[in-house]
Amino acid sequence: MSTQSEHPLINEISSLTLDEIQHKISDLNKKLAFAYGTGNQAVIHQLTMLMNSHQEAYRVKIDEAMPKDSGDKFGNIIDIS
Hints:
Blueprint lengths: L17 H21 L2 H25 L16
Helix pairs in contact: 1-2
């Protein structure tokens, strides 16, 4: 997995489980709150990049876990006209 905003010092996020990614996101939120409290813009920027990378990895893992349906099984049930 590679995104434009992925932090260059991150190890392979895609090998982590959903729980591990979620734990890292929670930890990054705490660190980000502290950085905002201190007003350190350089740290805020680095943590934001890390957060974006982990959130993207989490989104990809969720998308992979969801069953893909080629047909629209609700198309003939829901009529909004």
